[in-house]
Amino acid sequence: MIRNAKNADRQVIYDIWRQVYTNMDLNELNYFFNRVYDQGKTVIIEQDDRIISTLHAQPHVLTMKQKRLRINYLLGMTTIPDYRMRGHMGELMNSMLDESSHQYLFTVIKAFHPQLYEKFGFETVCWHKQYRIPAKVFLKCEDDGVSRSFTSQELLSLYEQFTRHFDGYMIRDLKYYENLTQRAMGGDCRICVYRNEQDELTGYAFYRETDTDAEVKEILYMDSTALSRILKFIIRRKDAVTVNVSAAEKLEKLFPLAIPRKIPFLMAKLHQKELFNKLYDVHIQTASDAFKLLNKPMYNNDDF
């Protein structure tokens, strides 16, 4: 039986996610359920008097050609091991998509396994570049001006300034950055910022550390000085840093030996083609067609 999750189901759903997402940092999982979960909606399948499958949805607002569109962001599609390969994922997905089609122009989902979602009408619309840069590249770089001192408002202001150069990005607010700051206070996640000589915050990075490496989940910068100094700060006492950026950014201009990998990041399904065509005075058929209309390069890096 498919139904909406209740507050009483929360701990069971948490336990299922912890069981299934074995690679997810426990602090990240706790952050999601403490700060994000209640803003969205979860549907579940019950069988044999237990919850066996879950799917979560978070509402977002996405920019597209100077308009703001409400979209539905899906995540947390899980089925406990004993009940897999029985079509439960399809049941939940079709139920959620049917509901979304009456409320949203688009439903989106992370492109972890594109082939799994293509059969439901999703298409990859956003790619990232991933660079792995060894520490030796930064031997002559400085990290003056980089610190962990900032306010959530400063991060939001930089995001709004940075995304003026892009389209297809999610609208963020102060609460988003207050939550991100909390997210960086536990586990192995960190935030650092760069201030120029005028004490203006012109760059920040959200990243995760291991004993030997670091992975930059998001880095925003207004110039190459902010970019290089932030990465120098992050890579101290590390062997290498992995940097994820939008498909339009070209870090090889600053680091000539860095060769990027192109990685699918976000898939989308268009629900109301006729409404979209009327809204934008176009004649498109699919989500892929819609995102090709963007006037600027696409930036989208929200993971839930």
TrEMBL record:
Which organism was this protein described from?
A: Copranaerobaculum intestinale
**Which PANTHER family does the annotation name?**
N-ACETYLTRANSFERASE EIS (PTHR37817)
Q: Does the keyword Transferase apply?
A: yes
Q: What is this protein called?
A: GNAT family N-acetyltransferase
Cited Pfam families: Acetyltransf_17, Acetyltransf_9
Q: Which UniProt keywords apply?
A: Transferase
- Domain (N-acetyltransferase) ranges: 1-144
tRNA processing is among the record's keywords: no
Q: Which GO terms describe its molecular function?
A: aminoglycoside N-acetyltransferase activity
| Gene Ontology biological process | aminoglycoside antibiotic catabolic process
Record's InterPro entries? Acetyltransf_17, Acetyltransferase_Eis, Acyl_CoA_acyltransferase, GNAT_dom
